[in-house]
Specification:
The complex is a heterodimer of chains A (114) and B (110).
Chain A lengths: L4 E3 L2 E4 L5 E6 L4 E10 L3 E9 L2 E4 L8 E7 L2 E6 L8 E9 L7 E2 L3 E5 L1
Parallel strand pairs in A: 2-11
Antiparallel strand pairs in A: 1-3, 3-8, 4-5, 4-9, 5-6, 7-8, 9-10, 9-11
Chain B lengths: L4 E3 L2 E5 L4 E6 L7 E6 L6 E6 L5 E4 L2 E5 L5 E6 L8 E8 L5 E3 L3 E6 L1
Parallel strand pairs in B: 2-11
Antiparallel strand pairs in B: 1-3, 3-8, 4-5, 4-9, 6-7, 7-8, 9-10, 9-11
Classes of the chains: A mainly beta (114), B mainly beta (110).
């Protein structure tokens, strides 16, 4: 089975540009999570969805960040406008409804904002 | 959110030596999970502990959950270069929320 798929794997952009990160969860998983990892702050949960509905977005740093999940097989995390401090690795993870809390992580998107 | 603290942050060991990382919480944990992240990789689930005093083993890895369910440890016997990576203890929370500790980065000298 394919794991969690993220694209792009690497993104380099200039400050002020819009960035869209994409995630395809594992088929049959009904929970999806977006994380951000930096050296300074470690691994932080940004937002998660259950059955395509956002449940907790308290980790979203500010209004420049938004996330959507239009269907069970696709989610996006958008940053507009991007800033250099947004540079990080962004992970998407998914989980099955009937499992305990084990989450399956995607390979991540390494974002660099110049 | 409520944090889990991990020590040490970094550990260098010679291949064949043992390694232990500790995880502490100021509040009682409903469960604790451990993940491993290889350099340049993504976190991968290792195990979940739920019961007070629980001990689980995976080959050379031994995981413990404290009697008070406020601490946990991961012990690796006779480290190998394949053990290199960052080990995270993760607090399970309400619903699907996970709170990651800061991690312990293990480096193994061959």
């Amino acid at each position: 089975d394919a794991g969690v798929i993220q694209s792009p794997r690497h993104e380099v952009t200039e400050m002020g540009q819009e960035v869209t990160l994409r995630c395809k969860p594992i088929s049959g998983h009904n929970s999806l999570f977006w994380y951000r990892q930096t050296m300074m702050r470690g691994l932080e949960l940004l937002i998660y969805f259950n059955n395509n509905v956002p449940i907790d977005d308290s980790g979203m740093p500010e209004d420049r960040f938004s996330a959507k999940m239009p269907n069970a097989s696709f989610s996006t995390l958008k940053i507009q406008p991007s800033e250099p401090r947004d540079s990080a690795v962004y992970f998407c993870a998914s989980k099955r409804r009937d499992s305990y809390n084990e989450q399956f992580f995607g390979p991540g998107t390494r974002l660099t904002v110049l | 959110g409520q944090q889990v603290m991990q020590i040490p942050q970094y550990q260098h060991v010679q291949e064949g030596e043992d390694f232990t990382t500790y995880c502490n919480s100021s509040t009682t944990l409903s469960n604790i999970q451990w993940y491993k992240q290889r350099p340049g990789g993504h976190p991968v689930f290792l195990i979940q502990l739920v019961k007070s005093g629980e001990v689980k083993k995976q080959k050379r890895l031994t995981f413990q959950f404290g009697e008070a369910k406020k601490n946990s440890s991961l012990h690796i016997t006779a480290t190998q270069t394949t053990d290199v990576g960052t080990y995270f203890c993760v607090r399970g929370g309400a619903g699907n929320m996970l709170t990651f500790g800061g991690g312990t980065r293990l480096m193994v000298k061959p």
